[in-house]
Amino acid sequence: MEPELVDRAVLKVLARVRKALLRSGLQGPDKGILCAVSGGVDSVALLHALCLLRKDPGFFVGAAHLNHCLRGAEADKDADFVKNLCSSLDLKLHIEKTDVLRIARSRGLGVEEAGRNIRYAFLERVRSAYGYTVIALGHHGDDNAQTVLLNLLRGAGPQGLSGMDEQSGSLFRPLLGLYRNDILAFAQALSLEFVEDSSNQDMDFTRNRVRDFLIPLLEENFNPSIKKGLNRLAFIMSQENNWMELEAKKAFEQCLMEQGPSFASLSAQSLSSFHPALGRRVLREAVRRLKGELLRLEWGHVDDALKLAQPSKQSGQAHLPGGLVATRRGQRLFVEARENPAFRSHVLVKESVQPVSVTPTPPGAVIFCPDGPVVELVPQKAGADPLAFAIGAPFAVMDMDTLSLPLVLRPAQKTDRIRPLGMKGSKTVFGFVADRLKGKIKPKTVWIMESGGCVAWAVGFGIDGRFGVRADSANLLVCRLVK
Looking at the domain 356-481, which fold is it? Predict the structure, then answer.
């Protein structure tokens, strides 16, 4: 290779990595990059690029290697290669050995999925324990194209077709704008040594078949630039998916009626008025807020739940992964926990605590209950945004004109009863709360807000249907559990 071409090959990779570092704010001696190094050409090239650049922005670099114990002596040799490489670069190496096959079988997972989960858990554990800012991965444009095509074959939606992000949480992929040919040219220019993973030739792995058979087939017979086309699709879908997620959050807030520790209550009428594409995203947002993630949530789950919001429905259930269920009760669609094993003890009844009386007037008030909760009550006109302050904590919205003032906040007693929204009959407050939590609850007092001798709100858990908002409600009371 000519010297000029050598310079171009090296500078192309370094320029791309430097720009990614600047975009991610990875500058300064307090920034650390943990580079995942398998020993293959991609991770070795990335590690060398980071080492060549680390003095300029001033970040520090470390390396991590996980031996999956899938290839016997070959895997041990790869680990030894990475040890020698890091020693030559004077880098700290974090190395671990895990029997991925055994774990995959014990958990009923595929080897690829188990290996990925264990690898990322190991990397995140090291990053957190040793103060690294991000985990650098050697994924490039070829990898992204394969991911998009795989997801397309599996019937993924916009999120799956968005492919990989340059930075997602603590994961950092500075090579995404490059292709494998760029990486190989960089390695050749610097005479870098690396190892070849024999499992990359195993056609039992779906990704290998996509890389070595399907993409070459598409390049030869349909589009010689298929990889660039798939990366362009990923970029477009990523931007559009981000925009749709923002719209879904707004729509979620529009139809959210109540939320508590283990449930979200949505207006079925509002949800059914949305375009189905937006409605499905609203339900995904509800699941995300309750679980913190969307693992194993498939299109069929969400579509079944969305059907419950149709005007023809008044009841019904759709099971969701992760211990959640969508339940239609009257005019509301609840997304709630089927069981909550964290709540295991009986409710305590505190009869000695003095009730607190309050008459809410604009602009509202914060009530500090002795030995109890902190509650905020804000009167609003119909049409105002009740979520302007309430989002992020358990809250309820009621028809102000149905309430008898003053309101009384007090611990619930065993004889207190509530008529849950969407039900004709009543049940004890403790029974209502236990139903919401699907079991026994922590040893704490359940507080209620009383109106005219009736339970209007089981604080943090739900309202009595007699005080719910109706189509002709003119004045609202937004109640938020602050603490």
Answer: Phenylalanyl-tRNA Synthetase; Chain B, domain 3 (3.50.40)
